[in-house]
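thread from #wetlab-drylab

HS: before we spend reagent money on co-crystallization trials with zinc ion, can we at least see a predicted complex? here's what I'd submit
DV: go for it
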Amino acid sequence: MENSRKIDKVVNLAKRRGFIFPSSEIYGGLNSIYDYGPLGVELKKNVKKAWWDFMMARKDVVGLDSAILAHPRTWEASGHLDGFTDPLIDCKKCKNRFRADHLLEKKGLKPDFAKTKPMDMKDIKCPECGGELTDVRQFNLMFKTFMGPVEDSASQLYLRPETAQGIYTNFLNTKESMRMKMPFGIAQIGKAFRNEITTENFIFRMREFEQMEMQYFVHPDGKDDIFDTWKKLRKEWYLSLGLSKENLRFREHEPDELVHYASKAFDIEYNFGFSESEAGFKELEGIHDRGDWDLSRHQKFSGQKLIVKDDDNKDYTPHVVETSGGVDRATLAFLIDAYDEIEGGRTTTTKSVKDAEVVLRLDKRLAPIKIAVLPLSKKVELSKKSNEVYDSLVSKYRIRYDETGSIGKRYRRQDEIGTPYCVTIDFDTLENNQVTVRDRDTMEQDHVVIEELESYFAEKFN
Ligand SMILES: [Zn+2]
């Protein structure tokens, strides 16, 4: 199935089966904010764990968890206070709000509002009602908040728009406390906030979102090789967790779209299937050469020396190669890629199965529930045995216990949320102490003695 056909089905499944809910839905929702439900939180945690384990397995990378709030000078140094803006324009008649650059892009123009004066917009009318538009205003995307009881500019802070800056401001502390040798990286997962004017596409562009970023500090010589290595490694990571090759691609930024500090940037793009973008491909993660912009700016604004010594004992400011991925985007990509629908169903034994059957073919490491324990009926003897099985496995795996509905329906419920294995306890189990283990993808069934279940699954999840 084409991803453009999957996206609506995935959005529907995500809500119906407890992966992702619109935030504060009982109050009508909050635009572009989403909550992760019971299965979504497991899936997202598994995505983050896979990334964290991948980073922490390296001798040259250490972790960090910096605060969401930072000294306001941080955002002066980083350039966010002046430069992190979008050009905003309103319709005087219908009051709709637009990105001025988006309106010009639709006319085939490519304006750069950050570097030049806003272009004359007088020929552009409101795309909704044809009304007259206001002047272009620069709108900063950082969320403001206040520290302490007085709401004045002295106590004004910002919710971080990216996690990277917390890594730069902790560069020296981290290097010295961990006695890291150059080159080395600092990895961090955390929330970031951007007050986007236009939001779109489910959890793809949210105002509150989560990043997984790694900043790798290098000597400028040899930086290109390191860049290429990370570029390759990061794409392989997505492939190793099940994204299909044909839905992933690299896209190099054109010279005119590079942000001011970057000298080279590649996006890993995934084919989300959103209709308005070319072939549905959109950014999943960026690999950026940020030069020495970050550390030299923080050095200038803080007055602290952020330098290291090279082999000849000469001081230099490290350059940064960054890998910056979106946790929510990755989670969505894994959901879309795993989604499979079988017309008419996979099973022919039950007459009632005529509808399309959904199987979420998530990698076992990402599946929110690893094992479902299913007693054939609610009979007391079966419940007792089934609870024994549940208790014997629950310290190692995330497990669901489900005893309602026909066994066929319960299998399909588990297939739909990507549970790799179902363990069924029936009346034979009471005689021979054997359970039936069903595989999500092959539907093959193994008979396993209860005492051997632990080693059976240890092998399956290895
Ligand atoms: Zn209008």
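DV: The chain has a mean pLDDT of 91.
HS: ok that's useful, forwarding to the group
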